[in-house]
Amino acid sequence: MKVSKVIVGVVAAGLLGGVAGGAALLYAKPDLFDKAAAPAAPAKSELARFATGSIARLETPAALAIAPEYVFQTRDGADTTLSAFRGKVVVVNLWAMWCAPCRTEMPTLARLAEVYADSDLVVLPINVDRTPDEVADARNFIDVHEPLPLYSDMKFQLPFELPGKGKMPQTVLLDRQGRIRAHFSGEADWASPEARALVDALLAEA
Fold first, then answer.
1. Is residue 170 pLDDT above 70, yes or no?
2. Averaged pLDDT score across all residues of the chain
3. Whole-number Å distance between alpha carbons of 97 and 86
4. CA pair distance 169, 154, nearest whole angstrom
């Protein structure tokens, strides 16, 4: 009986020691399990070096996907898609009159379009207001920001087809092959040096 008690005591001491040791390890490294459970961050492309200043939250996926073949309308009501702009570097900007940050950043997009007017850059604002009266207001607003054109998606679906998944404003940069190279959700200064450096890098690609 005494021997059994000794054995039980030894086993109990070992278990307690293991628990104490594990607790000490967790205390020393409290994020041990958090790190193991956290998903790996998506790989970024070489364009990540331009994620500074106003566009510090720029996403630059290493895995490239072609922009969706979603139909939206020109100013005259004709159907078009993003593939119609293949061969150009395209800055797609999704905006609405009810979105204050969208309106705030529009002059910077106009300035970007003006600076690159003689290049292969297309600045493509696509309005997502949903009624004819709202689109008329959007037309009057965009006309003040020359040389920007007016495109429209009255279904308000394209923002959900692109990486921002409905966030507004949402800006997506496409290369000449129509691939999504960078995207940004929120207001930014698209005429800033860092934004222009990003555009220059895409224009310089073969």
1. yes
2. 88
3. 28
4. 16
